[in-house]
Amino acid sequence: MQNKSKFLAGIITGLFFFFGQNVFAQFVITGRVLGADKQPVAGATIQAKGSKASTLTGADGSFSIHSSVKVSELIISSIGYSRITVPVNGTSVGDVVLSISTSSLNDVVVTGYTAQRKKDITGSVAVVKIADFKSVPGGNSNDLLQGQAAGVTVISAGVPGGYANVRIRGVTSLGNSDPLYIIDGVQIPDGFANLNVNDIESMQVLKDAASCAIYGVRGSNGVIIVTTKKGKPGNAKIQYDGYFGTQQPLSGNVWNIASPQESGQALYDQFKNSGLDFNATNFKNSQYGYGPTPVLYDYLTPINTNEGGPQTDPSTYALYTNEITKTNKAGTDWFHEIFKPAPIQSHSISASGANDKSSYYMSAGYFNQQGTLIETYLKRYSLRVNTVFNVKEHVRIGENMTVFLKQSPDPANINQNEGNAISMSYRMSPLIPVYDVVGNYAGTQVKGLGNPQNPVAVLHRYGTNTSNTWEMMGNAFAEADFLKHFTLRTSFGGMYLNNTFSSFSYTSYENTENNTNTNQYAQNQVDRTNWTWTNTLTYSNIFGDHNVKLLIGTEALQDYQNGFTATRGNYYITDPNNLTVDPSLWTLGFGNPGTQTNNSLVNGISYPIASSIYSLFARVDYSFMDRYLLSATIRRDESSIFAPDVNTGYFPSVSVGWRMSEENFMKSIFWLNELKLRAGWGKLGSLSNAVPTNQYYLYTQSAPFSSYDLNGASTASMLGSYFQQNGSTTTTWEKDAITDIGLDASFLNHFDLTVDWYKKSVSGLLFQQALLYFAGGPGSPYTNVGDISNTGWDGSITYHGGTKAAWKYDLTTILSRYRNMVQTLGG
User: Fold this and answer.
1) Is the dihedral of CA 716, 717, 719, 721 positive or negative?
2) Are 179 and 224 in contact, with CB atoms under 8 Å apart?
3) Which whole-number Å values give the CA distances from 166 to 33, 110, 210, in the listed order?
4) Which of 167, 395, 651, 697 could hold 727 in an S-S bridge, CB 3.0 to 4.6 Å?
5) CA-CA distance, 24 to 514, in Å (whole number)?
């Protein structure tokens, strides 16, 4: 019994000694990490050199790292800061201050529902510098992307509130080539044009399949990801950002227009050389501002006047019949009649703050831009609230929400269609003044001066349009960390948009053409709602030299739009002196009921529209020794737009990277800071050109009409239905295959370089099928026809300059070249 007791005591002593060795072998080092502004840096990575031990800093920047071996140095890194090595002498390193990194390779890049340093990713991603982005004043945030990222081009409408076409690596579709916009994790169909630029924290442009494949069928045209600001640790901060300025149009003879004398002589020579009798055959003598010699006469009058000579008595003037226009012998500068200096102003105020329990960011903005093109403007009022709450140590909830009101005349066709005022300004004769002798608009009722319209009249009438857009967008989310390496996140968000637009079409009495058309009032309304529900599970872990991050998730999206148009005409209360209708009478109830029209077609789009997508996706990012990188993604999309047999697709990608600068044989190249080679391939899709009803055969009801029997006798008016659209059950999305090879480099402590070569092959283009004439009246469906190839390269080089003091500057050059070629169009 005694021997057993000694044996048991020996075992217990041994176990105590074994565990004691492990307990007492634990080395604990503490400290705190601060930024250059002496504010805590949360989420910084602390690694024990020569050990597998690592940890992250808390909200207050503090950390405590445990190691089983004695630690001589700590490696501290954080996105946006330069990595630093700190010697360990004792159990605390105190306060460690990180300096802001000048290399863009350390910028945070949000890709595929995760965030990485740019140096660690293997796809083609451009990081937009928000400071540069904000430095250009403007009301459309899409416009401000011009010149900010390699491979990105912007074609602006050139009018406040107008739409901007953003293209990533060219046009690769016969229809819509707009990129996918993601704001705080939520798809926003109309982009971030109306987002307050002062609310933007970061912006990335994903350009290749390796970075876009995680978005599957929506990523074909590239992805732009925007993250808005959050509160930062420290005391509450109130900040104002604003400016006021003026915009100046071009000066001088912009269109290089002939003088009035030259114009008169040219018109005379035109008739003479055509064998026409200028005075007797086509005109009444002395009524025009030009004649058989280059001498300008006093008045321009229409050919149907009863007067035989120049009219100097305005009392003989009759509306619509005898317009009397005094010749502008000095010449009308039509360009500067419609382009004037215009003010622009922006004001934004924000409040933000954070502690270990919560963070908040709130802002209010006002923007007002008057266009240099008269009667154009944009006014916008915005509010934003972003919050995050730490419910427990590892549980967070929060929301991002913004609402804005935009007011602007409808900009769709003011300077884009054939008859826009700008084109009229160089087509209109300088002989014609802006107004006639009694103050009404002058125009081309004067025969022989073509058919352009008075551009001032066009714009003044356009300026009576009204357009009000309310939009609310945002999301609510919850995150939970568990089992040390897992994070579960759910997010639900979307947008609601309401636009009301009204316009009044005047009787343009001064024009050669259409000068007796009746007036008409139109009112449009569009409502749009969409939502996105995303759920992700992320696993992150480090095994010695192996770093693994795995993401799996589900996502559901739904979009619904509805709208209508209503018109009435023959508004009968008209001011005989200025030929305008009192705007207070512009209601649908005040026009002639017999002219009323109602339909669900707004700006060429037939409403309602509804569509949905359900997706499953996964992504893995792996690195070995912080120098060999691998990333792979797969997404499965199922869309309601296409028929059941062809509505599901799989979109894979794989990419690799090699950080050559981390190799020992590269260490001797003293001037090279970073060098990474990367390559990727993947498949994407696009459904942006397909209408949600494309798979269906549609019928619609006709308006009442008078029918006729076989003998030609008229019967009573009746309603009917007719075949409106053929459907296609075989149409599916466009398929894209993209290859990208690139490099990222940082050298001489001042330069960053990024270069990419890519090839994109698009097959199964969505195009409206051409039908033979004997097919009848129904519209044709969209089918998959044709192929497009797109090959090119893009790159940027940045020089970071400045002094050791606070003054610093960047110089960036962006170059891109691409070639789009239509291979086939399927006959």
Assistant:
1) positive
2) yes
3) 40, 20, 21
4) 697
5) 96
Instruction: Report angle CA 611, 617, 621 to the nearest 5 degrees.
Output: 145
* Residues 182, 206: Cα–Cα separation, whole Å: 11
Contact 502, 566 (CB under 8 A): no
Return d(Cα 402, Cα 224) in angstroms, integer. Answer: 18
Chain mean position to CA 676: 30
CB 154 within 8 A of CB 142: yes
Q: How far apart are CA 7 and CA 302, in angstroms?
A: 126
DSSP label of 779: B
Structure tokens at 592: 């002639």
What distance in Å separates the CA atoms of residue 342 and residue 322, rounded to the nearest whole number? 37
Please tell me the distance from the alpha carbon of residue 46 to that of residue 65, in angstroms, as a whole number. 8
Q: Which two tokens stand for residue 747?
A: 């050298």
Long-range contacts, stretch 392-398, CB < 8 angstroms, 24+ apart: 394/480, 394/481, 394/482, 395/478, 395/479, 395/480, 395/481, 396/478, 396/479, 396/480, 397/476, 397/477, 397/478, 397/479, 398/476, 398/477, 398/478
DSSP 112: T
- Phi, psi (rounded to 5 degrees) for 636: -115, 120
Residues 640/641/643/645 CA torsion (nearest 10 deg): -70
Burial of 755 (0-12, 13-18, 19+ CB in 10 A): middle
Concatenated DSSP letters of 384-396: EEEEEEEEETTEE
Nearest partner of 424 among 451, 445, 401, judged by Cα: 451
126 in Cβ contact with 205 (< 8 Å): yes
351, 237 Cβ separation under 8 angstroms:
yes
Of 99, 114, 108, the C-alpha closest to 129 is 108
Residues 6+ apart with CB under 8 A from 289: 260, 264, 296, 297, 298, 299, 300, 327, 329, 431
Q: What is the mean pLDDT of each run of 10 residues along the chain (827 residues)?
A: 51 45 64 82 80 78 84 80 82 85 62 80 88 82 85 86 86 84 88 89 90 90 92 86 94 90 77 65 40 49 40 39 70 95 96 89 96 93 95 91 91 68 91 83 76 91 89 95 91 94 85 81 92 95 89 95 90 53 76 84 76 95 92 95 93 95 85 92 88 84 58 62 82 92 90 94 86 72 89 92 73 91 80
DSSP designation for 287: -
**Rounded distance, CA 157 to CA 143, Å?**
9
Among all chains, which residue has been given the structure tokens 């934004």?
348
* CA–CA separation, 318 and 579 (whole Å): 13
Q: What angle do CA 547, 549, 553 make, to 5 degrees?
A: 175
Alpha-helix residue ranges (DSSP H) falling in 159-251: 209-212
User: 675: which strand partners?
Assistant: 745
For the purposes of burial, counting CB atoms within 10 Å of the CB of 12, is it exposed (0-12), middle (13-18) or buried (19 or more)? exposed
Alpha carbon distance 497, 467 (integer Å):
13
Lookup: tokens for 7: 């044996």
Omega within 30 of 0 (cis) for the link into 608: yes
The residue whose two tokens read 């090699």 is 658
Q: Any residues with CB less than 8 A from the CB of 455 and at least 6 apart, and which?
A: 334, 337, 338, 421, 422, 424, 425, 428
Question: What span, in angstroms and rounded, lies between the C-alpha atoms of 184 and 475?
Answer: 8
SS3 197: helix
pTM over 0.70: yes
Q: Count other C-beta atoms under 10 Å from residue 285's C-beta.
A: 13
**String of DSSP letters for 27-74:** EEEEEEEE-TTS-B-TT-EEEETTSS-EEE--TTSEEEEEESS--SEE
